[in-house]
Amino acid sequence: MSDLKSIECDLCIIGSGLAGMAAALFAAARGLSVVQMGHTGEIIFASGLLDLLGVHPVSEKRLWSDPWAAIDALVRDIPHHPYARLKKEDIKAAFDEILAFLEETGLTYHRNIDRNTGVLTSLGTVKTTYAVPHTMWKGVRALKEKSDCLIVDIRGLKGFSGRQIVAAFENEWSHLRSARISFPDSDHLNEMYTEHMANALLLPYNREKLAGVVQPLVKESSIVGLPAILGLYQTHEVISHLEELVGIPIFEIPTIPPSVPGLRLKEAFERGLRLKGVQYFSLTRALQVRQTAAGHFETQIGRDVVEHIVDSRGVILASGRFIGGGLHADRTHIRETILDSRGHLINQAGLAIDDAFRPLADSGGPAFESLFAAGSILAHNDWKRVKCGAGLAIATAFGAVNAFVRLCR
Amino acid sequence: MLIIGGGATGTGIARDLALRGVRCILVEQGDINAGTSGANHGLLHSGARYVSSDQGSAIECREEGALLKQMAPQCIDDAGGLFVAVEGDDEKYVAEFPHLCSECGIPVKELDLKEARELEPVLSDKLIAAYAVNDASIDPFKLSLENIAQAQELGCTLLRFTKVIGFEKKNNKIQATHLQDTVTGEKIIIDANQVVNASGAWAGEVAALAGVKIDIICSKGSLLVTHNRITDRVVNRLRASANADILVPGGTVSILGTTSIRIENLNQVYPTVEEVDAMVGEAVKMIPALENARFIRAYAGVRPLVGSRTASDDRNVSRSFALIDHTDDGLENFVSISGGKLTTYRLMAEKTADLVCGHLGVSKPCLTRTEPLPETQPGKWTQPGLAPKLWMQKHEPEDILLCECEMVPKSVVDSIVDAIRKQDGQPDLKAISLRSRIGKGACQGTFCGVRVTAYLFDQGELTFDQCLAGLREFLGKRWHGQYPTLWDKQLVQSELLEALYCGLFGLEL
Ligand SMILES: Cc1cc2nc3c(=O)[nH]c(=O)nc-3n(C[C@H](O)[C@H](O)[C@H](O)COP(=O)(O)OP(=O)(O)OC[C@H]3O[C@@H](n4cnc5c(N)ncnc54)[C@H](O)[C@@H]3O)c2cc1C
Ligand SMILES: Cc1cc2nc3c(=O)[nH]c(=O)nc-3n(C[C@H](O)[C@H](O)[C@H](O)COP(=O)(O)OP(=O)(O)OC[C@H]3O[C@@H](n4cnc5c(N)ncnc54)[C@H](O)[C@@H]3O)c2cc1C
After folding, report:
1. Pairing with B171, which of A223, B25, B113, B292 sits 20 to 30 Å away (CA)?
2. Ligand 1 pocket, residues with Cβ under 6 angstroms
3. What's the whole-number average pLDDT of chain A?
4. Does the domain at residues B75-137+218-306 carry the CATH identifier 3.30.9.10?
5. Looking at the predicted complex, does its ipTM rise above 0.95?
6. What is the pLDDT of residues A318-354, one digit of tens each?
7. What pLDDT does residue B403 have?
């Protein structure tokens, strides 16, 4: 192992889900040198919608239209929720910074700063979220105004039924219709996959064919909704081209995984972070982390065996929960998977942290001076029920990076 | 004739009577096999399990098991079985076993330990004895669905989701039976000449509605389903019945069981974390590989044990059934049948039908000993591994898979929808999952739930409220089975399920 040359950096970020990506961005923007590694995690499943906070208390299923007021209430009732360790200004600043970055990479998001937004899902429910990809934004308005709307679904795409969505709004949205099409040149295929179609639509030729099928169905409708397949990237170009051809606005509806908007997020981050100098090892795991005598961390990384050693002043654990692999449960215990249970307390729900986002040891103090954690691995977050997945990842990454920066000073 | 209860016994009685030309109505508060018949081990007993505790039952099982293998082979995987003891097990029990088997006429063959481990390589290396017997596995869903299908063909009426809520009595007879549709709440009254109470563990409750007392002990048993089939044969622990001593293969999975816990409330029967832990902890002594096996869900059923409430361990109460003619209780046209086993359901049905035919003056003999159970469509899809086999054999490319874990294609859902429609039912997700492997694979409904729902919409089978309610109910039901198995990969799966249905869709709101 000693012949492996170590890579030196300020901060080593373990995980490339939303929390890891956000942390890498914040760190790079603050002038830190960053090495990051990870597999895919939840991000490729995720809908592309960025939640801030939608529901609290979970037991009452109370939906909030003002996410900031919801955060006040949540933090009052659940003082250990990770949001409690951040000022609201910081959470706002974190979102601003992320959305500006995504805009730069071509992935524009829209939101109402002080309000949650309702987005139509493929199940026919309305999902409460915060920041919405531009590809879905026009649908938000169509839903609110109950515009004359056509939902188009695709033969062979399982789990997406236009009729189902129409039925969901039977009594309240009379101008909602659905139609089924065959995706261009797919007659020989029986099953259609979102990624393949999104990829095909990168070619103008395929967009013309798709528009050719959709256009005659439009009739009196003033807007068209399609499953989220409108371009694997370059969505501005794909959608405006389609809109031009069809003649009316078009929006996307989030689907079950594999989710194209999730892939877009991942791709945008990877591309944008590379430009900012983040050194990223894909399909690579942190196999072991240990602290050196000098107070640095040595992280052994590789696919199966150690391929590199990262020598860093700080580490951020953004390794997710059970899906991401940051937590593992056997029949009797839940444990954190990289540092094991050595040194810090792991409660059932994830990592307990201090105000600087440092995992705690049994003693109650931080396990290491410069080991931080961010994202869904944190205890007490319950993102699936309170609807704060992306917000949690972004805000805690912001908190952790800033805490590290303060420590370095 | 009114039959109460759509489990193996009730559907078996319906078929038996239909073959004798007796017109019946069968009522069931849930769907077919909503009770114990839908929550058991699926072991077609050779009888060997009972040779020491209850020889009568052992012999009954031997006879009925052999008969069913001939009459209903489509429901049975004649896998054979082993009885094995490991270090520390009661050697006296082991020594007596072959002798007791021959006393009951049950074929048994001693295996040398090496041979046993060649047959089933996952067996512990601490074996001290091994015997081969004629155990098999049986698909209880298919069995009941086939029984009721033939009965209906011969004129029997099936009312699912219809619950008996009271009786009117007059002149030592049940004059009318009051029922309620459990979905719509609508009430109906049936005037029947004879009433058969085949409501299994609920027999005491139903009899009480008629003012009659039956002594029933209810004992919950939990079972655990593995992701893969662990053994080819049924494997029994060679000792007096205790927790987790049987592993039964069923298609592509294996089922480990069971426990025995007395319960009072029949409507809250769920497996617990403690039971799952205890079972895995015990079963690894026989099959160490179970320690790291992936378990995909657990479920629990209730044994109706008819007898006195004094027995200390409920496994020792006779499993042989109780057929009660309530004439002695002052009701001439009311009969209860309870207890017994899945293995002996046919015999229970025969005896019950003989009794009520006596009351009716019908002299036609029972035909189920000689008439094979016909194979029909609707029962077919419950067997693990069958849908994929057929799908691959006659692969029609447009027949896409709606459930990828268990490989259930569109055409199977179509044929199930048809069958449900024929039974005047509503083909929703729950009814379809009962009749197929949908939701029973590794994803536990994460993807197939959404896909089948969307598909049913496309076919015009659902309204939106039915769709969401159906999904919630389906996932709720799956959840009871999932939560005691939440570790390792199943926990990851369950997190994904929650991320999708709650995190994205907000289905819980
Ligand atoms: C189906 C689904 C739908 C969703 N919908 C929404 C939504 O509508 N709105 C919303 O806001 N959020 C949604 N999310 C969640 C959200 O997108 C975030 O992914 C989530 O909050 C978790 O982010 P994370 O970065 O903490 O963890 P993850 O995304 O799980 O990332 C963990 C990362 O750590 C890596 N890792 C683990 N162990 C190691 C190791 N040893 N070495 C190196 N790397 C390691 C993994 O490979 C992965 O890259 C959804 C998620 C899912 C699954
Ligand atoms: C854990 C466990 C494992 C088992 N394993 C095996 C095995 O491996 N092999 C074997 O041979 N046997 C086994 N058994 C036993 C076997 O499952 C049962 O003996 C058999 O299924 C009983 O069938 P049944 O039709 O009498 O009762 P049930 O299947 O319980 O049927 C009774 C029906 O009546 C309905 N009902 C109740 N009240 C009303 C009402 N008021 N109105 C309308 N309907 C009503 C119920 O919904 C139910 O569907 C096992 C039992 C358990 C609990």
Report:
1. B25
2. A 14-20, 37-43, 45-47, 49-51, 129, 257, 285-286, 318-320, 323-326, 337-338, 375-377, 383, 389-390, 392-393; B 496, 499-500, 503-504
3. 91
4. yes
5. no
6. 999 888 888 888 877 766 666 543 322 333 468 889 9
7. 87
For residue B137, which of B358, B383, B326, B318 has the smallest C-alpha distance?
B383
Are the beta carbons of A55 and B509 separated by less than 8 Å?
A: yes
The DSSP result for A194-222, as a single string, is HHHHHHHTTSHHHHHHHHHHHHHHHTT-S
- Burial, B118: exposed, middle or buried (Cβ in 10 Å; 0-12, 13-18, 19+)? exposed
- The domains located in chain A, with CATH, are 6-44+263-318+343-365+391-408 (3.50.50.60), 109-255 (3.40.50.1860)
Tell me the pLDDT tens digit for each residue of A168-223.
Answer: 998 899 999 999 999 999 888 888 999 999 999 999 999 999 999 999 999 999 99
Cα A389 to middle of ligand 1, angstroms? 8
For residues B135 and B43, the answer to whether their CB atoms sit within 8 Å is yes
Of all protein residues, the one whose alpha carbon is nearest to atom 5 of ligand 1 is A46
Q: Distance from the CA of B35 to the center of ligand 2, in angstroms? A: 5
pTM of model > 0.90:
no
The minimum-distance atom of ligand 2 relative to the CA of B8 is 25
**pLDDT reported for residue A3:** 67
- Cα–ligand 2 centroid distance for B153 (angstroms): 24
Total CB pairs under 8 A between chain A and B:
111
Cα distances (Å, whole numbers) of residue B227 to B298, B385, B409: 11, 12, 20
Query: Is domain B2-35+141-215+319-360 classified as CATH 3.50.50.60?
Result: yes
pLDDT score of A343? 28
The ranges assigned to domains in chain B are 2-35+141-215+319-360, 75-137+218-306, 380-504
Most B-contacting residue of A171, A376, A384 (CB-CB within 10 A), to test interface: A384
DSSP assignment string, B158-173: EETTEEEEEEEEETTE
pLDDT value of residue A165: 94
| Dihedral in degrees, nearest 10, Cα atoms A118, A121, A126, A132 | -10
